[in-house]
Amino acid sequence: MADNQQPKLTIWGRANSVNVQKVLWCLNELGLPYERIDAGMQYGRTRETDYLAMNPNARIPTLVEGDFVLWESNSIMRYLCLAHGRGTPIYPEAPKSRAAVDRWLDWTLSTVQPVDRPVFWGIVRTAPAERDMVQVQKDADAAAEVWAIADRQLATRRFLEGDQFTLGDLAVGAYARRWLGVEGISRPAQPNLTRWLAELGRRPGFAQFVAPPMS
After folding, report:
1. Is the per-residue pLDDT at 6 higher than 80?
2. Alpha-carbon distance 39 to 186, whole Å?
3. Exposure letters 39-63 (e unless 16+ CB within 10 A, then b)
4. What is the pLDDT of residues 11-31, one digit of tens each?
5. Is the pLDDT of residue 78 over 70?
6. Angle formed by the axes of helices 133-153 and 167-181, to 10°?
7. Residues 153-170, mean pLDDT to the nearest whole number
8. Cβ neighbours around 30 below 10 Å, total
9. Which residues pair with 9 in a beta bridge?
10. Handedness of CA 129, 130, 136, 137 (dihedral sign)
11. Alpha-carbon span 169 to 163, nearest angstrom
């Protein structure tokens, strides 16, 4: 099949989901056209039979390309690079370099996401009158210890793995925007993280999909 006849890429998921934002940013980095369909939270649809047939987790995002369906945002980004961006420096070919990037993708799931969620949801997605700021600050203190790891990593390098922006920066950066952007908590100065996030903010995909007000 010729390139201009390839099935279109469709992303199911609402634009204010951090995991959808990662995928949209990745698509932007690769210059790939796509269609996005709102799903999740106020849009519903994820519990409908046809959606569950695509993604039994009832979560977002889900990628559809012809008869191929893929869920899990980091897996979607890896696929996009392998299928549509071979040779892209954001997901290097060399095994050691790729493994180094993959560990940061895994780190977002194993380490960052568990400490991000209670802080983000406790403030951004909880009405002011219902917020337990004592608990949120405790959660923020735990998150600060995790983000200190990235801050130390960035003390001696431009990006997480050196001078080249990669999927690792993209995945971690989407969460860092929430960590440094949420208001109402005390957090330690993390200058390397702050400098790095400001540099990511100059990338068009970040500016379009990650930087808008959180909701």
Report:
1. no
2. 33
3. bbeeeebbeeeebeeebeeebbbbb
4. 999 999 999 999 999 999 999
5. yes
6. 140
7. 97
8. 17
9. 65
10. positive
11. 11
- φ, ψ of residue 79 to 5 degrees: the values are -60, -45
Structure token pair of residue 198: 């400001």
Tokens of 12: 């199911």
For the record, the structure tokens of 51 come out as 């959606």
C-alpha torsion angle, residues 18, 83, 91, 40 (rounded to 10): 10
pLDDT above 70 (res 2): no
In the chain, % of residues over pLDDT 70: 98
Rounded Cα–Cα distance for residues 166 and 90 (Å): 4
Give the Cα separation of 89 and 91 in Å (integer): 5
Contact predicate 25/200, CB 8 Å = no
- Mean of pLDDT values over 27-40: 97
Whose structure tokens read 């046809």?
Answer: 50
As a whole number, the mean pLDDT across the chain is 96
- Where do we find the tokens 């950066």? 173
CA distance 89 to 29: 10
